[in-house]
Write a structure and sequence with these properties.
Layout lengths: L7 E8 H7 L1 H9 L3 E7 L4 H6 L3 E4 L9 H18 L3 E5 L1 H14 L3 E6 L11 H17 L5 E5 L2 H9 L8 E3 L22 E6 L8 H13 L4 E6 L12 H7 L5 E5 L4 H5 L4 E4 L8 H8 L4 E4 L14 E4 L4 H12 L3 H17 L2 H16 L3
Parallel strand pairs: 1-2, 1-4, 2-3, 4-5, 5-6, 6-7, 8-9, 8-11, 9-10, 11-12, 12-13
Helix pairs in contact: 2-14, 4-5, 5-6, 8-12, 11-13
Length: 382
């Protein structure tokens, strides 16, 4: 794209660590392309990594912690003031709360170009309680209001979410852009030659420790297989996330993973290194945008098992790079995991196919190019 001298890009994300794991390459590429880039997010102690990368950072602690509804609405005014002060040419919101409140604030502040990116629709869409239905109704009303910006785009990561937004008439079709995920560093996540054949199959779930990620089903499936005498170890990598109501506490995780053969590692600094020790990666989530953990696993040449839900089924091709199972069904999950554990000759075949799929569809370079192309397109319409 042509260099936009002096053009200001403001990326607004819920928390610093999510920006670092999902949007840092886009911000760096935008800076290299000539944008003046600022990141606004809640600082959980990792903002120094953002400034060390040569990017400006604004701490917005209210973006992380959910508050009573009418207190939440005050975020619109706070964000509007921020946008008026910084005068960005493009505001790019990422995750549901910045999109929800920031899109309305951007319209009120007269931001020239608005991009909203939903990396997933969250726990509000995974349950059918009366509360969830009411929250979805409120969410749709607010989204319709904020997404009416005349020079804007809504980035969705999978075809199921696009169909949902069409059916609910939340946004005009012309505003929707399909950009599938956050991209994978395929140089970092790549197949490694095992030094020696492992005696036991190593199976892992990588993600935040949330019920909606299928953590309970994974543990139940692991217990079923261990009781049958299947020769495998089961690992969980990731931290709880207290801001999500489906989070499982560290204490509960310790209790749940007491049985021999089930190991909880918490958050790890270098998941790429850990994947070298793993044979099969699993994500029995209830709903996703496009799960980066599955993409990283596939890029690393691992067979994957995931639920047949939005986001996951964009990645898994049954019988080619893994298997899909029914959500909330630990028996189906155990059956497919056992199939892979007992047939190690499938690992290489599935892993090679998954690696090729990531390289051709989901690499970091592809996602960065698509995103910067969208910036250029909307900037040309000012």
């Amino acid at each position: 794209m042509e260099k936009p001298p002096g053009k200001k890009l403001l990326l607004v994300v819920n928390v610093d660590w999510f920006f670092l794991s999902h949007r840092l390459p886009i911000a760096q590429a935008a800076k290299e392309a000539g944008f003046d880039v600022t990141i606004a997010a809640a600082d959980t102690g990792l903002s120094y990594k953002i400034t060390d990368a040569g990017l400006r950072f604004v701490n917005l602690p209210f973006l992380e912690k959910k508050q009573p509804f009418f207190s939440e609405l005050r975020m619109i005014g706070r964000l509007k003031n921020l946008y008026k002060n910084l005068q960005p040419d493009i505001v790019h919101h990422v995750t549901i709360r910045p999109v929800l409140y920031g899109s309305i604030a951007a319209r009120l502040a007269g931001v020239p170009v608005l991009i909203n990116a939903l990396s997933g629709l969250g726990y509000v869409y995974t349950g059918n309680s009366t509360k969830n239905k009411l929250l979805r109704l409120i969410l749709h009303i607010m989204l319709r209001t904020g997404l009416k910006h005349k020079n804007s785009a809504l980035i969705l990561q999978n075809r199921d979410d696009i169909e949902l937004f069409r059916e609910r008439n939340i946004v005009q079709q012309v505003q929707i852009e399909l950009i599938r995920g956050s991209g994978v560093n395929t140089d970092l996540y790549k197949p490694m030659v095992a030094e020696e054949k492992r005696g036991k199959a190593q199976v892992a779930l990588v993600g935040r420790m949330l019920r909606d990620k299928g953590v309970i089903e994974f543990i139940e499936a692991a217990k079923t297989l261990l009781e049958k005498g299947v020769n495998a170890d089961f690992h969980l990598y990731g931290a709880p996330y207290a801001s999500n109501p489906t989070s499982i506490s560290a204490h509960e995780m310790k209790t749940l993973t007491e049985p021999k053969g089930i190991h909880y590692h918490g958050a790890v600094e270098n998941i790429a290194e850990e994947l070298n020790k793993i044979d099969i990666v699993c994500l029995p989530s209830y709903r996703e945008g496009l799960p980066k953990s599955l993409l990283e696993a596939a890029s690393a040449g691992k067979p994957v098992v995931a639920t047949n839900v939005p986001g996951c089924r964009e990645i898994v091709e049954v019988g080619k790079n893994g298997y899909l199972v029914e959500p909330r069904n630990s028996d189906d999950l155990a059956e497919k995991l056992e199939l892979l554990i007992l047939n190690p000759e499938l690992h290489g075949k599935f892993g090679q196919y998954g690696r090729r799929k990531v390289l051709s569809e989901f690499s970091e370079e592809i996602i960065v190019e698509q995103t910067l192309g969208l910036y250029s397109k909307l900037m040309s319409e000012i």
